[in-house]
Design brief:
The complex is a heterodimer of chains A (117) and B (695).
Chain A: E1 2-9, E2 12-21, H1 26-38, E3 44-48, E4 52-55, H2 57-73, E5 76-80, H3 84-93, E6 100-102, H4 105-116
Parallel strand pairs in A: 2-3, 2-4, 3-5, 5-6
Antiparallel strand pairs in A: 1-2
Chain B: H1 4-34, H2 44-64, H3 73-100, H4 110-139, H5 145-160, H6 173-190, H7 195-198, H8 202-232, H9 243-266, H10 270-288, H11 296-311, E1 315-325, E2 331-340, H12 344-357, H13 359-368, H14 377-380, E3 381-383, E4 391-399, E5 402-411, H15 419-465, E6 476-483, E7 491-497, E8 502-510, H16 514-531, H17 538-550, E9 559-567, E10 572-578, E11 584-587, E12 592-595, E13 617-621, E14 627-631, H18 633-637, H19 647-658, H20 663-678, E15 687-694
Antiparallel strand pairs in B: 1-2, 1-5, 3-4, 4-5, 6-15, 7-8, 8-9, 9-10, 10-13, 11-12, 11-14, 14-15
The chains are: A alpha/beta (117), B alpha+beta (695).
Chain lengths: 117, 695
C-alpha cells in the first residue's frame, strides 16, 4: 500500500510518501514525480519520507532515474525524515552519496537554502 | 438366471406346444362326443391349454417388443401392421380353401372345420397380444408412477379374466357384460395417454394414421371372420365367448381410433412443434460448437442460420468487427459481414432505413452506458420505411461488455417480429456470445500454457547460468543456496579461478523482479566473464562493469554487486562493493561476525566516469576457519506476519552461534531459521546465500 500527497509551501513543493514502495506501487511514485518534474516554475521538491515503511530496489530505481532529470532542469530534490531502516537501504545502495538526505523538514529547508545560495 | 434370449425361445416353444395340445384336446373331445364315448378329460383341459397359450404369447411379446422411443414409434406401428398382414394372409388362405371346398365332404366334417378354426384362433391371438403390448409401450411413453400403477392394474386384471372361462357356466350373462364393460371403460380412460403423438413430425403423422387405420381394418376383418365361423359351424371353442379376447379387441380398437383422431387434430399444429424442436436443436448446436473444436466463423454461421429459420425472416445479415494485428504489429479492426438472402446495396439501403427508425441511436446509448442495462424489446424491433423491407429486428452481440457485432433480421411484412421471436433471438445471440467468449478463454488458456512452458525453459536456462560446482579444496570450501520467487529471478553469484592462488567471487542482485531482472542477470554474467579475465582489482572491475552496463540497462534499472579477489597464498581478500548488501565476515579467533563497512554505489546509477569516486577498495587478511558470508537482500528483508524484517542482527547472530558447524550445516540452519521466521513457505523474493570457509 502506498499513499502519496503533494502540497506547496513557501514556493517549495512537498511530496509525502506513506507506506510501502515496492515493484508495483513504485509506479505511483514515478507518476507523482513526473507530474512535479513537468510542472512549471518548480524550483525544489522536498520528499517527506517520515511515514515510509519500506522501499524496494524498484522504488530506489525511481528516485535514481530522476537524478539526471532534476539536475538538467535545475530542480533540487531533498529527502527528509527517513527511518533508520529505510535510510540504511539508501545508504547500502550508495544513493546517500547522490541524493540530499536530511534528518527532518527544518534541516531539509536549511540544506535547500544552502544549496540555492 | 435364464437370459432374455433363452426366455424368448422357451416362450415360443411352450406357446407352440400349448397350441398343439389345445388342438389335440379339443378335437379329441369333439371326436369323443361324436362317438358317444366318455373322453376321460373334462372341458377345462382345452381352456387350460388356451390360457397357457395366451400367457406364453403374452410373455413372448413382452420380452420382444422394445421400449417406445421418439425414433421408433413408426417402427412399432409397422411391426403391428406386418403381423396383422401375415395373420390376414393366413385367414385369406383358409377362406379360399373353404370357398374352393365348399361342396366337398370335408366341410361337413366338424373335426376339419374346428381344426382350421384353431389355426385362425392362434393367428388372431398372436395379432391381438402383439398389438396390445405395442399399445402398452406407446401409452407408457413418458410415464409417471400413477399411470404405471393404473396400467398394471389393467393388465393384470385382463390376465385374471382368463380364469373367467373356467367358471363360464357358473355365471350369469350380466356378470360377463359387467366385467367387459368395466374393462372397456378402464381401457378408454387409459387410451388418452397419447404423448408420443406430439413427437411425430408431419410425415410420420400421416404414416401413423395409415397404419392405425389398417389395424382397425384388420380387427374388423378378424372379428368378422370369427363371427362367421361361429354362425356357420358348431365350434368346440368359441373365441368370441372369452371376456379377455373381447376386452382386448375393444381396447385395441378404441386406442387406435382415438389415436387417429388426435393425430388428425394435431396435424395443423405440428409445424409449430417442429419449429420449437428445431430451435432447441439449434440452441444446442450453438452451445456445442466450441466443444467440437469449431472456430468462431462456424459459430457465426450457425447463429445466422438458426436465427433466420427461427423467425422466418426474409433476409438477414450478421456484421462482426474483428480486431487483429497487421504486419506492422498495429492493432486494426476489420468488418466481416455474413449475408443471408441479401445483396450489398440492399444492406446499405436497409441501414439507412434502420438509422431513421432510431434503433442505432438506442444502441449507441446502451454502448455509452457500458451495456449495463438489459435491452428493451420494443427499441430493437421496428417497422421501417424501406423499398424492400417493412420490419426489422437488430440484436447486438456483446462479449465481455463490448459489442463485437450485430445481427439484423428483416421481413417484408410490417410488424413481423413479436416478443417470442425477440426472446428466441436474444437467447441464440447470448449463447453464441458465450461460445465466442469460451473460445477466446480457451485460446488464452492455451497461450498461457505455452508461456508457462517457455518460462520453465527460461528458469532452466537461468539455473544453468549459476555455477554448477563450487570450490571444495584444501584452501577454501564454498556452499550456496539459491531460490527465486518467480520462475526466473534477478540474483546472481559466480566465481572464477584466476590462477592457482587467486579466486574471483561475485554476487549481484538486479533491481526489480521476474523476466526483466533475469535478462539483466544474464548480462551481468556476460560482463563478469569478460572482465574477470583482465585480472583487474575489484574497484577497477566494478568501474569497467558499470561502464559496460550503462549502455545495457534501462533508465530505472540498476544492479548491486560485490566483487572479491581471494588470494589463498597470502590469505588476503581484496574487495569492493557496488551498492550490494555488505558481506558478513566471521573472525574465528574472536568468534565474532561483523559487516564490512565500505562505501559503494549500485551499478548503472551513475553512468559516467564519476562512478569511480563512489567506490572504495578494501583489503583484509584472514586466518584458517574464518568465514565470508555473501547474501542478497531477500534474506535481510524477509518479513514475518507482523511485518518485522529478519534483519542484519539475526543473520549475524545465527552465524556466530553456528560457526562451529560445517558450511553445509550452517546453510541449512540459516534457511530453516529464515523459513521459521517468515512462517510461510511462500517466498516473495529471491534469496541467495554463499558461504565461503577458509582453510
Amino acid at each position: 500500500m502506498i499513499n502519496i500527497e503533494t502540497y506547496k509551501e513557501e514556493q517549495i513543493d512537498y511530496l509525502i510518501v506513506e507506506g510501502d514502495v515496492d515493484a508495483s506501487s513504485s509506479i505511483h511514485l514515478d507518476e507523482a514525480l513526473t507530474k512535479l518534474a513537468d510542472g512549471d516554475d518548480i524550483k525544489a521538491i522536498l520528499v517527506d519520507g517520515s511515514k515510509l515503511d519500506y522501499i524496494s530496489s524498484a522504488g530506489l530505481g525511481v528516485f535514481m532515474s530522476y537524478i539526471d532529470v532534476f539536475k538538467s532542469k535545475d530542480i533540487q530534490l531533498i529527502i527528509f525524515g527517513l527511518s533508520n531502516k529505510v535510510f540504511n537501504v539508501f545508504q547500502i545502495l550508495g544513493l546517500d552519496q547522490l541524493l540530499n538526505i536530511t534528518k527532518d523538514k527544518e534541516a531539509a529547508k536549511e540544506k535547500l537554502h544552502e544549496v540555492q545560495s | 438366471m435364464i437370459s432374455t434370449k433363452a426366455l424368448i425361445r422357451l416362450a415360443v416353444l411352450f406357446a407352440i406346444l400349448c397350441w398343439l395340445a389345445l388342438i389335440a384336446s379339443d378335437l379329441f373331445l369333439l371326436f369323443a362326443q361324436q362317438s358317444n364315448v366318455n373322453a376321460g378329460i373334462t372341458r377345462e383341459i382345452p381352456f387350460l391349454f388356451l390360457t397357457l397359450f395366451i400367457l406364453f404369447i403374452f410373455l413372448y411379446f413382452r420380452l420382444k417388443t422394445q421400449k417406445a422411443e421418439s425414433i421408433n414409434f413408426i417402427d412399432l406401428l409397422w411391426r403391428v401392421f406386418s403381423i396383422g398382414l401375415m395373420v390376414s394372409i393366413i385367414q385369406l388362405v383358409i377362406g379360399l380353401l373353404f370357398y374352393l371346398l365348399s361342396d366337398s365332404k370335408l366341410l361337413k366334417n366338424e373335426l376339419a372345420v374346428n381344426f382350421f378354426y384353431h389355426i385362425n384362433l392362434g393367428a388372431i391371438v398372436i395379432f391381438l397380444i402383439s398389438t396390445f403390448i405395442t399399445w402398452k409401450r406407446l401409452i407408457l411413453y413418458q410415464k409417471n408412477k400413477r399411470l404405471q400403477f393404473a396400467w398394471q392394474f389393467f393388465e393384470y386384471g385382463l390376465l385374471a379374466s382368463l380364469l373367467f372361462s373356467f367358471f363360464d357356466s357358473a355365471f350369469q350373462q350380466w356378470v360377463f357384460t359387467g366385467i367387459l364393460g368395466g374393462f372397456f371403460i378402464f381401457g378408454l380412460i387409459l387410451s388418452f395417454n397419447l404423448k408420443w403423438i406430439a413427437y411425430l413430425n408431419f410425415k410420420q403423422k400421416w404414416r401413423s394414421i395409415l397404419l392405425l387405420s389398417l389395424v382397425l381394418l384388420y380387427l374388423y376383418y378378424f372379428v368378422n371372420n370369427l363371427f362367421n365361423f361361429a354362425q356357420e359351424f358348431s365350434l368346440v371353442l368359441n373365441l368370441l365367448e372369452s371376456v379377455f379376447i373381447l376386452s382386448i379387441v375393444g381396447f385395441i380398437s378404441v386406442y387406435a381410433l382415438i389415436s387417429i383422431l388426435v393425430i388428425l387434430f394435431n396435424l395443423p399444429t405440428s409445424s409449430v412443434f417442429e419449429q420449437k424442436i428445431s430451435e432447441v436443436l439449434n440452441f444446442q448446436k450453438l452451445s456445442q460448437s466450441i466443444q467440437k473444436g469449431e472456430n468462431k466463423d462456424q459459430v457465426y454461421e450457425t447463429l445466422l442460420d438458426s436465427s433466420t429459420n427461427a423467425v422466418f425472416s426474409a433476409s438477414a445479415w450478421l456484421e462482426i468487427s474483428e480486431t487483429y494485428e497487421n504486419e506492422e504489429g498495429v492493432i486494426e479492426t476489420r468488418k466481416k459481414v455474413l449475408k443471408s438472402n441479401i445483396e450489398d446495396n440492399e444492406i446499405i439501403q436497409a441501414k439507412n432505413s434502420i438509422m431513421e427508425s432510431g434503433i442505432y441511436a438506442y444502441l449507441n446509448k446502451q454502448k455509452a452506458a457500458g451495456y449495463k442495462k438489459d435491452f428493451i424489446q420494443s427499441k430493437l424491433i421496428s417497422n421501417i420505411n424501406d423499398p424492400t423491407f417493412s420490419s426489422v429486428m437488430v440484436m447486438p452481440l456483446i462479449v465481455k461488455d463490448e459489442e463485437i457485432g450485430s445481427l439484423t433480421l428483416l421481413k417484408d411484412v410490417s410488424d413481423g417480429f413479436n416478443r417470442e421471436m425477440f426472446d428466441i433471438i436474444s437467447s441464440f445471440v447470448n449463447q453464441a456470445c458465450i461460445s465466442i467468449e469460451n473460445f477466446e478463454l480457451l485460446t488464452e488458456a492455451l497461450e498461457n500454457e505455452r508461456y508457462r512452458e517457455e518460462l520453465k525453459i527460461a528458469s532452466k536456462v537461468q539455473k544453468s547460468l549459476l555455477p554448477s560446482e563450487l570450490i571444495q579444496d584444501d584452501k577454501l570450501e564454498m556452499f550456496a543456496f539459491y531460490t527465486s520467487a518467480d520462475e526466473v529471478g534477478g540474483d546472481y553469484y559466480d566465481y572464477y579461478r584466476l590462477n592457482e592462488d587467486e579466486v574471483a567471487v561475485i554476487i549481484g542482485d538486479v533491481s526489480g523482479k521476474g523476466t526483466s531482472a533475469a535478462f539483466h542477470m544474464s548480462q551481468m554474467k556476460g560482463v563478469f566473464h569478460s572482465l574477470v579475465q583482465l585480472g583487474l582489482d575489484p574497484k577497477s572491475f566494478l568501474n569497467k562493469a558499470n561502464q559496460a552496463l550503462a549502455s545495457c540497462l534501462d533508465k530505472t534499472s540498476f544492479i548491486t554487486a560485490a566483487y572479491y579477489n581471494i588470494n589463498t597464498k597470502e590469505r588476503k581478500i581484496c574487495l569492493s562493493r557496488a551498492g550490494h548488501c555488505p558481506a558478513l565476515f566471521y573472525d574465528s579467533s574472536e568468534k565474532k561476525a561483523s559487516y564490512f563497512k565500505n562505501k559503494g554505489l549500485g551499478l548503472g546509477i551513475v553512468r559516467d566516469a564519476s562512478f569511480e569516486k563512489y567506490i572504495e577498495l578494501k583489503q583484509i587478511s584472514y586466518k584458517p576457519n574464518d568465514m565470508l558470508i555473501l547474501y542478497t537482500d531477500g534474506i535481510i528483508e524477509a518479513k514475518n506476519k507482523s511485518g518485522e524484517e529478519f534483519g542484519y542482527e539475526r543473520l549475524c547472530s545465527t552465524i556466530e552461534v553456528n560457526a562451529g558447524r560445517s558450511p553445509k550445516e550452517i546453510k541449512k540452519v540459516l534457511i530453516d531459521r529464515l523459513t521459521d521466521f517468515a512462517e510461510s513457505k511462500e517466498l516473495d523474493d529471491d534469496y541467495t546465500l554463499l558461504i565461503i570457509r577458509f582453510l
